[in-house]
Structure formats: structure tokens, C-alpha cells
Amino acid sequence: MKAKFLSVICAIVLVGLQSCSCKKGAEAIAELSTGSWELEQTFGDPIDKGEFAKIPVLNFDKTENRISGNSGCNSMSGSYTINEDNISFGPIAQTKMACQGTGEGKFMTLFNSVQKFKLQGNKLKLYDGNGTKVLSFIKK
To answer: What domains can be seen in the chain, in order of their start residue?
Structure first.
């Protein structure tokens, strides 16, 4: 009975370890730089596309450690650093177009709070310092 119980526990642990196919470090950097990442959720809820002039998109350049894209209206660019599951962004430069709606301001507030990330399949999840998932992107 004890051996059967231990076998079941081991199987559950192995399945749990396999289900977190999170990529970190160099593997994550390589994956991030192959395509564009389009904003899909904030705080786990689908975005309201009406809040944005265009959907925010991020592009990662692994050779230059640069990020570019748009924040919902304005173009943006800057540097990034990855260490395991930690990510930090250098100063972000943005164009200064007048934008309607509140989406871009909310996006930038959340973006500036990011400290950690998880890359799972075609999903990029960004977390603040408290471990709260603030932004989720899908690979395009």
C-alpha cells in the first residue's frame, strides 16, 4: 500500500514538473526574439481593444538587447536585460503623438512595473515585483 502511494505521488510530481515548460535565460532570449508579441491580457483579463489606437506589440532583438514596438498608440524602444526569470527594461523612449483613450497610459504603468517573466509556448507573461501577472502577450 505504501509503495503504491509513493508511486502515485512520484507520478504527480513528474507531471507537475513537465507541465511547467518555462524557458529561462539564453533559451528564453532566443525564443523571445523570434516574432512579435501582441498584448492579449492585463491582470488575466482580455484587453478592451477599444481603449487602444492599436494593440500594443513588443519585439525583442537578442543581438542588441533591445526592445521595440508600440504602447497602444506611440512607438517605443529601449534596452532589456534577462537573468533567469528576471527581466528589467532600461529607459524607454516613446514618440509623443496625441492619443485618445486610456489604454496606453495603463499599459505603460503596468509595463514599468514588470520584474519577472514566464515564457510558456506562444505566451509571454510579465509579472510585477509582488508576483502578480500584469501583462500577457501572444506570439504573432
So the answer is: 22-139 (2.40.128.270)
